[in-house]
Structures
1.
Amino acid sequence: MGEKHLIVSGLQLWQWRNAALKASIATDVPPREVDWLLLEVAGLDRLSLRLESFKDWPQIHLQLSLEELDRLWQRRLSDRLPVQYITGVTPWRNFKIAVSSAVLIPRPETECLIDLALAAANGVSGHWADLGTGSGAIALGLADVLPKATIHAVDYSLEALAIAQINAQNLGFADRIKFYQGSWWEPLAFLKGQFSGMVSNPPYIPTSTLPTLQPEVVNHEPHLALDGGGDGLDCIRHLIEISPSYLQPGGVWLIEMMAGQADAVGKFLQNQGSYHNIQIHADLAGIERFALAYKS
């Protein structure tokens, strides 16, 4: 495909945008995604989109041809392919993070984990773990707010780790984050008992609930990152059980969970016997989404 197809007139793009906006409304896809796509692939800014001033520009350089853009947009509408996988990036905290269908798209509510970790760390850096790192979002967030800490990011999926490493490289954290392939704490046995903190956004959806999730999620995001077993709590139970032998006294244990799981998670932490100061925190929507505890 020659370079010439990647240059379109403002008018052509304006016509495409109008058609795409109509189609999004007709198929219940948020219309703002059209502009988000154009910000990424056409390098337009929000103002020229809002004023539609780009309509008069003689030429606009696209990162992919208009045909390709349209083909991907049709997939967004018919296959419910998430727009983040189309552009290959998503905004998260103050970063632009690369994503692919090998990783879960980091959610805005997960950003709160970083603020909770910073407050809980209370100035203690040392070794921190991000277990089930996926795109690397949490590891990047931790590296950003705990500049003296070493972050150890683990994932079972090699494809996910490849994306996380690209993100660490792109955002200038490659020397601060170490990556490991494996299951939860296993690759970090050599630092047993030495961690100042652990943060995780583990799979927490009950298996039977998976088919009821939005098609964007269930048909395109990795099930390994979603499926939490029969009651959704398999991975969380494991992390409650295993983490005390990895954390130093006073070490932070912090996870994200699903609405309705807080009571069970609080009880598990209590009954395990190695944690104190157990806290449940809500996200910005008021949903009890985070559990925080300290190793006794």
2.
Amino acid sequence: MSRHAHFRQKLQDCALMHAMSAHNPLSAKLAAEAGFDAIWGSGFELSASYAVPDANILSAGQHLDMMRAIAAAVDVPVIADIDTGFGNAINVAYAVPQYEAAGVSAVVMEDKTFPKDTSLRADGRQELVRTQEFQGKIEAACAARRDADFCVIARTEALIAGLGQAEALARASAYEAAGADAILIHSKQTTPDEVLAFIAAWRGRVPLVLVPTAYPQLREADIQALGKVGLVIYGNHAIRAAVGAMRDVFARIRQDGGIHAVDAGLPTVRDIIALQGDAGMRELERKFLR
């Protein structure tokens, strides 16, 4: 079974999958090594790795190139965060086949205006496009895919924008009608109550997707018990872990005036070389170098 088919089957069965964010192939390999079902090709993390805001500052080409590199580095499915689809439905129709060709198994597209502002930014600009306009983008994405198992996930930011449950449910239903394979419902409330209310009211046939960044107390066992969620995404934990670790090590080196106190606690150079694929390179050398 292909990666695409495996992802679609598990998503539709609501056998809860968990995806870890990644901003480069190394973080993706570490996530796969840890046992995550899929990789979230995070626009937020990629932007952060370039030290620019998550506001469509980076080009579509930069994001696509990174998704291609990540998909080549891991065997698990890759879910690409394509923000608003890089423009209107025409842009989406051109973008989706490129992501599919890059080895991505699914794209997630949100219903905000372009350029977007990151969802969890305090006092961020959270403006949504018309429902009918976003339906056209979903339809364009579905029509553009070449593999029927490639998934198009629609993300509504109605709760992020403060538009309430009725608007969120109406948009989600409209997006399902347009052909979305799943609905990502997002919230920036610090408790899961808002999202749980949405899930309880959801009568659609397609599964839901959660990103519990703002409400970490909601555990996978609790999500699985809801029976309507097919995927949970840990949306920014790779970059946060990397930043925290680097800050700590860098500060200790400056404080100690050298690496003598930190070196023993770090992964070895041998560990890093292994992650770079040294075993595969050695095998190629044995086979082909004469």
3.
Amino acid sequence: MTPRWLSRLWQTATGRFGLIVVAVIAVTAIVASFWTPFNPQSSNVGDRWLPPSWPHLLGTDDTGRDILSLLMAGARTTVFVSVGAGIVATILGIALAALGALTARWVRETVAVFVDILIAFPVLLIAMMISSVWGGSLWVVIWAVGIGFGVNIARVTRPELRRVQQSDFVLAARASGLTPAQSLVRHLLPNVAPVFIVQLSWSMAVAVLAEAGLSYLGFGASVVEPSWGILLADLQRYIGVHPLSVLWPGLTITITVLALNLLGDGLREATDPTLRHRAAPGRSATVHTPAVIA
């Protein structure tokens, strides 16, 4: 039986588009782990700069590598980074939000100052600081985006937790003997899930951009790892001669980031009780954007 929230998500155009694209990327990453049309790291000088045709559906690059195979292999890197960054951001964000909303006043104020300090640093700057110490790698991107958006999630979720904590049903649950941890899991987190989901989708979208951007600059994936950012960096030198080859990695990154953002917006509408009503006939649905972008 299909969950209600999934049915509501599918009914929205933005949610349907985001869900389909993200599912395609995830399936592509799984398939690419054991099969690609060609070896993505195998060069064939005789096949340099072939136009899109059979069997190279998207053409080849300057060393004769199949661009479609490179994009499929790069999807594995993208999924790994976005999921890893999402996990780090979730753990850090929930922990800081809980400490900033459910503890003693001096702890809350200390956490608030700590979050305000960290949120002032852009994600890419954090990544460059970490990579200067441990060197460039995918783990640098994961931790940088996870930390950067973890504090962002904490900042947005904390006031929502404080608001829900004062609700009558939460006070009644506490009076019945629920511990703060049980109240957090059963009542507080489910009620702030819509706000949290939007921020999490943004963190995963930024993770895709950060991985591509840092790999482009040499701070992300190593040259032996398949990456959309590295492919874009390799091909952009030939944009004046072979512009179509640069289009594919750029378009893939753009569509993936757009899909993650729209999926987060659709999930918010599907899970937030105040947004579940359908738009009136003849009127377009309202697009909800996150309040804080870092």
4.
Amino acid sequence: MTSHDLRSQLASLTTEAFRPELAGIDRLPTLDIARLMNGEDAGVPAAVAGQLPRIAAAIDAVAARMARGGRLVYAGAGTAGRLGVLDASECPPTFNTDPEQVVGLIAGGPPAMVTSVEGAEDSEELARRDLDALKLTPDDSVVGVSASGRTPYAVGAVAHARALGALTVGLACNAHSALGAAAEHGIEVVVGPELITGSTRLKAGTAQKLVLNMLSTITMIRLGKTYGNLMVDVRASNDKLRARSHRIVAQATGAGDTEIEKALTETGGEVKQAILVLLAGVDGPTAARLLEESGGHLRAALAHAPH
């Protein structure tokens, strides 16, 4: 693509549009700029709301594959890539997932998390190589993330993943994007032009963060990683987590401290098993078996417990 082609392509993107009414922003008092920025941000959740049916459909498709042992893979460049890596890295401590289960790929690899890796985002070949290193299967899901919806790394990742039979999701912030078209599930959250022209780490980045929060969190709810709104798939591996585990068991069961400590000791600190011991009146090994038979879903295990 020539520089002229790229310039005309960028000129057509909402995320790159110039707003003449903000041309004097640098001359405003700081509080006025903060008010302007806050007002801009206030519109982001409404833009996400317009895509909720598409987001929900993508989540159900991802969860079905992850229930069969598939992985969730994010692929993006720059801010979009960093947000994917952030979301992936927060799944193990929050939901006790295997670090290989939710993966964040950023164009240019780990160094690109803190510095710009020149040219990496322009390479579809790099995306294919990064995905091939993961040995994708049809049970895996690949989410391409790109504010513009045209970033070759993200579009290339989705196109390659789809050709391999994996589920694909394209998350963009422009309508009729190449990324949305390339994916089985296109999610286009149009937040409009940025306060600082083309700075898509602002509203577009916020929109992407909100959608990625939904994708991972609701998928984990569907996979039984929570009980109600409690993080029951946490393992007590340090003092803070031991205290949190005790609190979660208390909130789920209403049991006293002594009973909770006994149940946690009996189950090796496994919160779900401890809750089952207390609510179903079973022993540790029975709780472990019931959970295994229920695919890790605590509610299902409780329903199947002997009464």
